[in-house]
Amino acid sequence: MSLRDAAFKLDPVLWAKAALAYHPDEWAVKVMMSPARYVIENVSRQAGKSTCAAAMAVHEAVFFPGSLVLVVSPTLRQSGELQRKCLRFYDLVDPQHKGLAEDTKLSIQLANGSRIIALPGQEDNLRGYSAPSLIIEDEASRVSDDLYTAIRPMLATNQGRLILLSTPNGKTGHFYKIWTEGGPEWLKIKVTADEIPRITKEFLANERLNMTEGQYRQEYFGEFMEAEGAVFSSDLFRSLANSSISPLKLRGDESW
């Protein structure tokens, strides 16, 4: 390996700028350079989170021979879209595809033995894969909790990384639970639309007029909102399930 490639292996940001002409935002640099095994990204729409994920997937596959990268999304279409971003980046690294052993709509296999495989959000599709070096869960707030539970054991025997990226989708599910309760093993990244110079104030003002307030705050400002039209809050239901909270005693009710 040349000194240049050795530097690129250690510094994915340096490689992305030189090889992909991709200049990641500050938040993306933090993700790409972090040693954290577990990363959760609560990032605004159109902030570039899937582009960052695709760059990381290709870097892993190119510089770590034999690596397995899994890209998981709620639907086949979404998985395929992220896979296409990976292939477009790979095209820049290897325009003649001399190092590409296989290319299908949902799978890229390199001559060095690495694979990038896109999977739709069904638990059965994940069984059979083991020891991935990187799992990217796209639109994680819309991926089922059962699927997330099936993902976790794959990382039991190696030091593979897990990256969840999404905007919020209410106060339910593993994405919300990890964001609010996840421990220090999680690198938590939050990016709001007004922090992205490519998103103008005029665009956001127009979006606010064309969405409910809850939708706007979730999609662009990373706030976990109650479901539209909900009569009772999810926080109330959680408190009812908490045995440490005493029930209300009504005045005059001696049965308590």
Any overview of this molecule?
With 256 residues, this protein is of the alpha/beta class. The protein has a single domain, classed as 3-Layer(aba) Sandwich (Rossmann fold), CATH 3.40.50. The protein is 40% helix and 16% strand. The chain contains eleven helices and eight strands. The protein has an eight-stranded mixed beta sheet, with helices on both faces. α4 (49-63) packs across α5. It is globular and about 50 Å long.
SSE inventory with pairings:
Blueprint: H1 3-10, H2 12-20, H3 26-33, E1 38-43, H4 49-63, E2 68-72, H5 76-93, E3 100-103, E4 107-110, E5 115-119, H6 123-126, E6 134-138, H7 145-151, E7 161-166, H8 173-181, E8 186-191, H9 201-209, H10 213-221, H11 234-240
Parallel strand pairs: 1-7, 1-8, 2-5, 2-6, 6-7
Antiparallel strand pairs: 3-4, 4-5
Describe what is shown at a glance.
The chain is α/β, with parallel strands linked by helices and 256 residues long.
According to CATH, the homologous superfamily is P-loop containing nucleotide triphosphate hydrolases
Q: How many domains is the backbone divided into?
A: 1
Mean pLDDT: 88
* Largest β-sheet summary: 8 strands, mixed
Cα(first) to Cα(last) distance is 75 Å
Uncertain residue ranges: none
Order of helix and strand elements from N to C terminus:
HHHEHEHEEEHEHEHEHHH
Instruction: Report the top-level CATH class.
Output: Alpha Beta
According to CATH, the fold-level topology is Rossmann fold
Count of DSSP strands: 8
**Basic shape:** globular
CATH architecture: 3-Layer(aba) Sandwich
For the biggest β-sheet, the strand order reads 3-4-5-2-6-7-1-8
Percent strand equals 15-25%
